[in-house]
DNA sequence: ACACAAATGAGAGCACTGCTCTTGCCATGG
DNA sequence: CCATGGCAAGAGCAGTGCTCTCATTTGTGT
């Protein structure tokens, strides 16, 4: 790991980081669409073509920012979860959801980058998957733990969904009852519906007092999976 | 109304429509980000500056497309609702949700335009509001009707949300019990979470058999508001 | 019927974008 | 100590949204 890199390699990693930092700054200020390679280069006192030594294209820069955003969101969620690790599952569930919302409100453009409409023509490379999965895995962990403690009463599983549910649990959530799979995945998606609507202005003049509204909705989401409170 | 417009006015409305048509075509093909005024003008055999006689800016063209998209989605939902107008509310609820999903899958870029991340810097003008409200009003109607038939058992309303819920019902859903307001608005947002996740690829390798999964989630959503089936 | 005004289209041009290619420098590894 | 390869710089291409000017067409009031 910590191989003493030559001055050259060190400079490279430093400049790469500086580019990402400046890009993130512009992303936060103006949004992904207005992120301009030339502007980043200008802010860093280099010429635009030099930037291509570090990121072969604008999309690659965006991909790096996407991974960072997923990781930042995942870290925020994990941190919030650890702070309430001793509480009952329903409380931990809410804490994670609230952390996701909090991160989204604090980083709207980065949230839009990862959970808004994908930049057209852009396909997320496989590299983003592990970072993207962190919040999902955290929620799975809460539900599995609830199951192990006997604090989970999942709703009945429609026969139609049995095979799918068993595949899902086998793939991503071994040890979790298949009855919880579909409600959990749905709740996961619905969580982002709630956050996205608030963030993108759909609640304007509809929901005013948003935090309690969100907590109520999220608690219902937990109950729909079978988390008891 | 039907004032016999002069050749000039007629030409204007025709050309305006032609511009929107071509723009919609490019939107469907490539997405909003790649919608280019110059390309639209080129396809129509006019020069780019001429297009500005009809739409003062690219944003105005997009706004027109957004309103059309909201209307198209609203019409699809209303049509689906009318086809099952005699069924019980739970069935009508599901029908509307399924229609929303169907429209989204058929018009992914238009869906992304209205429910994805807003084009940065772009603020939806007030003109879009009535078109945007159609689906919401339809869902409100289903729930209110369920209430009037005695087929609605909304969950208890947390005291914290009482005032907000009463304001919401007074503003948008007179005649609906306030207990249903928060769950309904949440379900509305969550519906778009489900659709968005499917559309934007988050269910890739997670949910395979998506229609039954969606129906199950949507039925749970209806039950969370208190619709009995 | 005619003149004036408004609407429209064409073209050039500005400032910007992502990206490529060539050129020359200079630090590093053999 | 020298050759190589990483690097920055600059010019340039094709495209973008948008503005401005100029000529032409069209509609209308006298």
Write a brief structural summary.
Chain A has 229 residues and is mostly helical. In chain A, 67% of the residues lie in helices and 0% in strands.
If you average the pLDDT of chain A, what whole number results? 94
What kind of sheet is the major sheet of chain A? Answer: none
CATH topology heading of the largest domain in chain A: Tetracycline Repressor, domain 2
Question: What would CATH call the homologous superfamily of the largest domain in chain A?
Answer: Tetracycline Repressor, domain 2
- Low-confidence stretches of chain A are none
Q: Please count the beta strands of chain A (DSSP E, at least 2 residues each).
A: 0
Order of helices and strands of chain A: HHHHHHHHHH
Structural class call of chain A reads mainly alpha
Question: Largest interface, counted with CB-CB under 8 A?
Answer: A-B, 54 and 54 residues
| Domains of chain A, number | 2
Oligomer: homodimer
Helix coverage percent of residues of chain A? 55-70%
User: Count of helical segments of chain A?
Assistant: 10
- Rg measurement of chain A, Å: 20 Å
Q: If classified by CATH, what would the architecture of the largest domain in chain A be?
A: Orthogonal Bundle
Which percent range describes the beta-strand content of chain A?
under 5%
User: What is the top-level CATH class of the largest domain in chain A?
Assistant: Mainly Alpha
